[in-house]
Specification:
By secondary structure, the chain is mainly alpha-helical. 47% of the residues lie in helices and 7% in strands. Bound molecules: zinc ion.
């Protein structure tokens, strides 16, 4: 309960934490309280910067609203150059509000710094690469001569060397990329969104404005009171669950990291592995997953996977296998497409199988994770 002291100035968080202590979901509540606190601190700092810069800060405009973000606006109907923030500074309608942006952070919450892309370019081949491909890989379908025949040996040698160098650079880059992203996840942070609240009067143009009267989504004004309530409720579920998904990931990863220390596998491991290899084998080869598992198992240059397996008992080796497979399920959930995973029907998908297994080993699912394993969609 020492963690409660972190929130001594926030009575709402303290009440929630104390209530959660008896439900087995204390860790989830704590992670959410931390996320809210980090968000608020980042927002305060941002508001201060914007105020110091003398900008007009407004509440995030609803919809419809006479205010539009610059990202939507072009200079004029005749000139579709997008309005830049610097260019727009002097417009009397210039305003800013606090929106959100997604950033990729490492396991310590620091923004991921990606390695520079290799500056080397693929060398020009002295022959037709397509022909070469067919000649080498599909000889039965290829009807021409060896595309390399008749080319001076020193030209071929120089090209092969340049190509090998290029392949090496690309390979190193891919490895550095996977390392930088090991255990990474996407989080949403407050961001300054610039806009214009007099865009129509000031002659800016919205090229994206929707003019067609037919639309699949009914307008709020065309809905009945009950329909409006229903739509509002559905929207709240999406907002709440989107918000809860990232802190749940932190708690879950810490849980699996602890599981990785075990000498013997939890009950149900063999059956889970059999299902994983039958249904979800495509997930295993992901490089990020390999790094995440290495992280959990404490593997590194000294304690190589080979050495660790060598000295493991059969039981420990099974734990290592399990952790490697769990990482394959977990890694994509921190990626760009993992954020929407909770919205899908979880009764027969990879994420559902993964979370249900964790639950069977004693992991307390958060509300959003319960949604993720359910038949419900959003
Ligand atoms: Zn303007």
């Amino acid at each position: 309960m020492a963690a409660v002291a972190e929130f001594e100035d926030d009575s709402e968080a303290v009440t929630a934490l104390i209530a959660a202590a008896t439900t087995g979901r204390f860790d989830h509540t704590l992670a959410q309280a931390r996320q809210t606190r980090d968000w608020n601190l980042a927002k305060e700092a941002l508001v201060k910067d914007l105020t110091d810069a003398g900008l007009t800060i407004i509440d995030e405009p609803g919809y419809p609203s006479p205010t539009k973000s610059l990202a939507r606006l072009a200079v004029s109907a005749e000139d579709d150059t997008p309005l830049s923030e610097v260019e727009h500074e002097d417009c009397p309608g210039h305003v800013v509000w606090i929106g959100r942006r997604e950033v990729e952070v490492d396991k310590n919450g620091k923004p991921v710094v990606l390695p520079p892309e290799p500056s080397i370019e693929a060398p020009d081949a002295p022959y037709d690469l397509d022909d070469h491909y067919w000649f080498v890989n599909e000889p039965d379908d290829y009807e021409g001569d060896d595309p390399r025949a008749g080319i001076a040996p020193d030209v071929l040698a120089a090209y092969d060397e340049a190509q090998a160098e290029y392949d090496k650079a690309v390979d190193e880059y891919q490895k550095a990329l996977a390392k930088a992203r090991a255990g990474s996840r996407r989080v949403t942070l407050p961001a300054a969104i610039y806009g214009c609240r007099e865009w129509a009067e000031r002659g800016h143009h919205d090229p994206h404005a929707y003019h067609s009267p037919s639309t699949s989504k009914p307008k709020a004004s065309e809905m009945s009171e009950a329909e409006r309530e229903e739509a509002k409720k559905a929207r709240k579920v999406v907002i709440d669950n989107n918000k809860a998904w990232a802190p749940a990931l932190d708690v879950r990863r810490e849980y699996v990291a602890n599981l990785a220390k075990a000498k013997t596998p939890p009950k149900g491991t063999q059956k889970f592995l059999a299902t994983a290899l039958t249904e979800d084998a495509r997930l295993i080869s992901d490089v990020t997953a390999r790094h995440l598992a290495g992280d959990w198992l404490g593997l590194n240059a000294k304690n190589t996977p080979k050495a660790a397996i060598e000295k493991a008992t059969d039981n420990r080796a099974l734990v290592m296998t399990l952790i490697r497979v769990l990482a394959a399920y977990e890694a994509p959930l921190g990626g760009q497409f993992g954020r929407g995973e909770w919205r899908r029907d979880g009764t027969n998908n990879a994420t559902g199988r993964y979370l249900r297994f964790l639950e069977s080993t004693g992991y307390a699912l958060s509300e959003v994770e319960k949604f993720a394993i359910s038949k419900k969609t959003a």
